[in-house]
Design brief:
mainly alpha
Length: 691
């Protein structure tokens, strides 16, 4: 009965809670310190206890005397309390599992409505470590309603974006439930398992991270994996829009290994069920488009052969087009012959469409066959005028530009424009860049006016680069001030917005970041960014990274630190690739104290977090040790080595990469002392390189 109750709770309440969490997460992250009102509680925990009970008694008594208790204060305080319990246990050799000792504290936090999922996760983890799987799941089930009705319990400043604690909350329950079945031999409740899975994305990576604390055996992990695979198989539809969207998403995020794995796994599932004949052509079209986008042409050919070998269906023209596109991007000596071979097959076994001609012409132009391309397109225009579209016109213009026939391309561009031509984004960009490069500013202005009013074009980085280049050259010619240049840029953007043209902030920020790298345009780039922020522009993960990187590359560390702090204030997690750029900026700087302060306050506290992308990595210490060597500061060198030693104490599997072992080995030869685990790792790496 408990399992059914949990299923209902998750199904009917979690969606509401998730919406509330999403809304709450948009607010400014809370900052957790030690408010004056909680000093008395912290003072209790500073006392020396020999037993757990007096600690619990004093904390409960003090909390009962309070009129106002706030969850935001108790996220940090609750962990301090649990840590104190563990410390008393270890110092006094108390023989009891953490979950037994934590239970009373967890109940007290619950009674006062200040229990956070991160506190509760620690108790469930201890139960699972002790192999109390059924107890863990039953305890979790009883508390579920409390968390779903109190959405703030899912939120914390450190965890705001990653949602790691929430994923841990559901994944712990899922693992405990499955392993309780293994232990008891009970039958899986499919509805319950599915309702748990809907609340987090189960992956091998998540399981691996969570198991660092759960300490499950390989046998237990394999049991979980097998159950998950069976669950996915029972509910999997290869033709569903959900599956095809997942393929497209993996492709756009360039996650090549998961993409290929999902494709292979999906086809294998349907093959094992003898259901290959049920797969629709749309599935293979989506697979092949995704793989071509990621430049996995060999896999595209493999899928085409899979269709033919298994006699699934007659390939559609979309599938033929993807096969043709795959041949064009193959880096093989006989590439042109392969393209011609597929082109002949398409004409024999299918009917080419505009996309087919576009792909084929692109190849012809790329290989310098411009006259032949023009002839093919002229024939097409006469014989199949319905296929002669803007895409092919743009293709021809782009081809002429690539083959240094820019004047011809511009003439065609003007002729087509008079006929109602809507150029592609690339055609606009190439023609505009060519005109600006040759200081044909009047013609550039005409093209720019066309683009501003073309709803079908979404400006990208190349577009904004051309626009800003145009404004800079115009300013140089007319003596326009920096303020006027920025004003003109915003006028162009507002005109685009009024005309219904869509543009994304990432491409604009990328161009601004490029301006900030150059000494002659650095100040202008900063001014544009400042004006953008005044209009309400909110930088995202990519934007902050681009800005911080460019500022560090230029050597403007003050502004880099300002934007790094601002990224955290806006709720972004401190990623290693972002703070490493700041360390790289400090590398040739003699201000050792500034580097140490940044490391101590911003990086060192992250060493024990659960989010892998926030953890210090080999590049963190490479940049630190590089600064120590460049400045010749022996004390700072010792400091960096000490930090690495501490890192190895936390994570014995810490990867040093290729350069760090060489540097550390040299330093060891100069008399610097490495901790034993670090020294062994360095010796092993050096020996491996000698083999």
């Amino acid at each position: 009965m408990l399992f059914r109750s949990v299923t209902r709770q998750i199904r009917f309440q979690s969606s509401t809670a998730q919406d509330a969490v999403a809304t709450a997460q948009k607010s400014t992250p809370q900052k957790f310190n030690k408010p004056k009102r909680n000093r008395d509680l912290y003072k209790i925990m500073e006392q020396d206890f020999k037993e757990i009970t007096p600690l619990l008694d004093q904390m409960e008594l003090k909390m009962q005397s309070r009129d106002n208790i706030y969850l935001k204060d108790f996220i940090s305080l609750g962990h301090t309390w649990l840590n104190k319990i563990s410390k008393v246990k270890n110092e006094n050799s108390i023989n009891a599992a953490d979950h037994i000792l934590f239970e009373r504290a967890i109940n007290t936090l619950h009674e006062n409505d200040v229990l956070h999922i991160s506190h509760f996760n620690r108790m469930i983890i201890s139960m699972i470590q002790s192999k109390k799987f059924e107890l863990a799941f039953n305890t979790w089930s009883k508390q579920l309603d409390y968390f779903l009705q109190n959405e703030d319990t899912f939120i914390s400043a450190m965890d705001e974006k990653s949602g790691f604690e929430k994923a841990t909350f559901y994944c712990n329950a899922f693992c405990a439930y499955l392993l309780s079945l293994k232990e008891s031999g009970a039958k899986l409740d499919f509805q319950l398992a599915q309702s748990l899975l809907q609340n987090f994305y189960f992956s091998e990576r998540l399981l691996s991270i969570i198991n660092r604390k759960l300490n499950l055996s390989e046998d237990e992990l394999n049991f979980i994996r097998n159950e998950v695979n069976q669950l996915k198989s029972q509910n999997f539809d290869i033709n569903s829009s959900k599956h095809l969207k997942e393929i497209t998403k993996l492709s756009h995020n360039h996650r090549l290994i998961p993409l290929e794995h999902l494709i292979d796994e999906s086809l294998q599932k349907f093959k094992s069920l003898d259901k290959l004949s049920e797969i629709k052509p749309k599935v293979f079209e989506t697979y092949m488009i995704a793989l071509n986008f990621c430049k996995r042409q060999a896999k595209v050919v493999e899928l085409f052969n899979f269709i033919q070998t298994n006699k699934l269906f007659t390939p559609t023209i979309s599938i033929w087009n993807q096969l043709l596109a795959a041949q064009i991007t193959f880096s093989l000596p006989n590439m042109e012959k392969r393209v011609e071979s597929v082109w002949k097959l398409i004409n024999k076994l299918s009917t080419p469409n505009s996309e087919t001609f576009s792909i084929y012409i692109k190849n012809k132009i790329h290989n310098g066959h411009i006259n032949e391309s023009i002839q093919i397109l002229n024939d097409l225009r006469k014989k199949n005028p319905e296929l002669w579209n803007d895409q092919l016109k743009s293709q021809l213009i782009e081809g002429l530009m690539e083959n240094k026939k820019s004047d011809e391309a511009f003439k065609l561009f003007k002729v087509y424009s008079e006929q109602g031509f809507s150029p592609s984004k690339d055609a606009y960009n190439k023609v505009l860049a060519h005109l600006i490069k040759n200081n044909k500013l009047e013609e550039s202005g005409e093209i720019l006016d066309m683009m501003i009013n073309d709803k079908n074009v979404e400006p990208d980085t190349a577009t904004w680069t051309a626009i800003i280049d145009f404004l800079l050259k115009t300013a140089q010619k007319s003596g326009m001030s920096s303020e006027k240049t920025i004003s003109e840029l915003f006028t162009i953007m507002n005109d685009m917005k009024s005309a219904g043209v869509k543009y994304n902030n990432v491409s604009i920020v990328t161009v601004i970041a490029n301006l900030m790298r150059n000494s002659s345009t650095h100040a202008l780039g900063l001014d544009i960014l400042t004006e953008f922020e005044k209009t309400g522009l909110k930088l995202n993960e990519v934007g902050y990274t681009a800005v911080i990187t460019s500022l560090c590359d230029f050597g403007d560390l003050n502004n880099a630190l300002k934007y790094y702090s601002r990224s955290k204030e806006n709720g972004l997690l401190p990623r290693a690739y972002r703070y490493n750029h700041i360390l790289k900026g400090y590398r040739s700087n003699s201000d050792i104290e500034a580097t140490k302060k940044f490391y101590e306050t911003e990086i060192k506290p992250l060493a024990t977090t659960g989010d892998l992308s926030s953890l210090p990595n080999q590049y963190t210490y490479f940049f630190l040790i590089s600064q120590a060597i460049i400045t010749g500061d022996a004390q700072f060198t010792k400091y960096v080595i000490k930090q690495l030693d501490e890192q190895f104490a936390i994570n014995g599997d810490f990867e040093l990469g290729q350069q760090l072992p060489q540097i550390l080995n040299t330093l060891k030869g100069k008399g610097f002392t490495l901790g034993k685990p670090l020294a062994l790792k360095v010796d092993k790496a050096i020996s491996a390189n000698k083999v």
